[in-house]
Model the fold of this input.
Amino acid sequence: MQLGLLTAPFEDTNLIEVADWTAANGMSALEIACWPASGGEKRRYAGTSHINVDGLTQAQGADIIAALDDKGITVSGLGYYPNPLHRDADHRDAVIGHLKKVITAAGLMGVPVVNTFVGGDRALGVDDNWTRATQIFPDIVRHAQDAGVTLAFENCPMIFSQDEWPGGHNIAYSPRIWRRILETWDGVGMNFDPSHLVLQMIDQGRFIREFGSHFAHVHAKDLMIDRDGLYERGILSAGMGWQVPRLCGLGDVDWGDFFGQLYRVGYDGAVIIEHEDRDFEGSDDKVKRGFCLARDILSPFIK
Done:
């Protein structure tokens, strides 16, 4: 396995500088954030554009890969996490159009994976969202297949705020939905993040054993359950006020079991640290300290 990071927190640092710092600090892979360079959706941990995929040529892509390779850095995937099932049709068209550009860029660069969300309309139930997904995604999946790229959906419910209540902004979070996805679309995979299982009280080992052969990419992020917040608000608040994203080792993920299960199912790709910890925000120095803390927790498990 390789250890690396998602570039999203370094929104004001160019990609080569991020790669220099990553290599100098003992990590060898990057998932490159590819939101629209012209702006667009902005939320915490979203909106960073380290590659302008709009009109990217094969030669430009090759230059980026060569520059990273010279630093000992591989690209685990390109990341863009919008809401392709958004209730507003114009919004859907915009994010789907950009998602296709990210997929095209990955194909030109020889990057094997594009990480994204299935999405969801928070006002609809899972089954109605699934009906919409079966209408929207076949064309996107074919585009990825034509580009030689695996489309990897993250298993995140996207319920963090009142804007996402009650149904969340991503339906690809539970075993029931994942079986539908894998039975319906060939050539897609999962971008697995164990922290989302903590929130849902889903057994980590059982989940990895069932779906591990479909992991195209893996995130390393932790989650702490604030027991006082849970007591105050109850489980029906869907984690608002009691789920706390943390860096690896500071939450409730069992990292020994996590890596043990990954090795058992034969996963041999990159493990990408995803930084969403408010205690390590506010400056590049604090963000870097957070990544280094997670690196130190995870490195002993990497072979």
Notes: The beta strands are 2-6, 29-33, 74-79, 113-116, 150-154, 188-192, 215-220, 222-225, 243-246, 270-273. The two ends are 6 Å apart (CA to CA).
